[in-house]
Amino acid sequence: MQYGMVIDLKKCIGCHSCATSCKLANNLPIGIWWNKVTTEGGTTIDTAAGSYPNCTLRHYPIACQHCKAPACVAVCPVDATYKDEETGLVVQDNEACIGCKICMEACPYDARVFNGDNPAYTLDFVVGNEKVEPHLENVVEKCTMCQALIEEGVEPMCVQACIGYARHFGDLDDPASEVSQLIAARENLQLLAEQGTGPSVYYLK
Question: Which pTM value belongs to this model?
Answer without folding.
Answer: 0.92
